[in-house]
Amino acid sequence: MIEDYNVYVYSKKEWLKFFLQGGAIGFCIGLLFYSNIIGAILLSSYGFIFVQNKKKKKIEERKWLLNLQFKDGLSSVSAALNAGYSVENAFHQAVMDLKLMYPEDAYIVQEFEGMVRQLKMNMTVEDVLMDFSNRSHMEDISNFAEVFVTAKRTGGDIVKIIRRTCKTIGDKVEVKREILTMITGKKYETSIMCLIPFCIILYLKIFSPGFLEAIYGNIFGVVFMTIVLILYFIVYKLAHRIMNIEI
């Protein structure tokens, strides 16, 4: 079980790999924009930013994967309840079903196994689900936990609630998949457009080196290229934020 899905802890190997990747990108950009080894070394510190960006991306990917798996987990619980199992035993049965669909180290398998262990320690289903909700920081899981707790206290139809929640989550997942499919091409186009400025500068350095001499080796050139880099970074961030659609 993961203590907090909003926190991702790198292994030493992972951290070093992403830092070196980011450092290499920054170093190449420094050479391209400043044609100076000092500028290249300074920009190689981009490795630290790259590591943080990768961490955010991994957190998003992990939560998206958990959301997909949670839908299947609810389906298994719903099937067990329809078969006559109690709520507590339904989670135990769901674990066995999930192991047929996912490897044992899958997030949802670990979470449901953890829930079963907590239930065996006499924790209530409500407390177990709220703990999962607080750790996941995901809207679908939080909504389900709150509705389940309310229904449990007021004597609502748990089977119907789980079935309806599973359908709602499934519909949201399908909508997000369709949106991701539609904007995949636009993301590739954005990535290509972001590479164009570097390709132009590289082309000029190779085939018309004299054209760029005026902006290399002087204060004006350093200031000018720094401003260009800052503007490029802002546009790059804005383009990716536009592509990041929340459902």
Keywords:
247 residues, mainly alpha, 9 helices, 81% helix
Helix share, percent:
over 70%
Question: How many runs of DSSP E, i.e. beta strands?
Answer: 0
Order of helices and strands: HHHHHHHHH
Largest sheet properties: none
Number of helical runs? 9
Number of domains: 1
The average pLDDT score comes to 86
> Which geometry do the CA atoms define?
elongated
Q: Low-confidence parts lasting 5 or more residues at pLDDT below 50?
A: none
Q: Give me the secondary-structure category.
A: mainly alpha
Note the beta-strand portion. Answer: under 5%
Gyration radius (Cα, Å) is 25 Å
Distance between the termini: 26 Å
Give an overview in words.
- The protein is mainly α and 247 residues long.
- It has one domain (12-243).
- The chain contains 9 helices and no strands.
- It has helices spanning 12-34, 37-43, 46-82, 87-101, 107-120, 125-136, 139-154, 158-207, 219-243.
- Helix 3 packs across helix 4 and helix 5 runs antiparallel to helix 6.
- The longest helix is centred in the last third of the chain and has 50 residues, at 158-207.
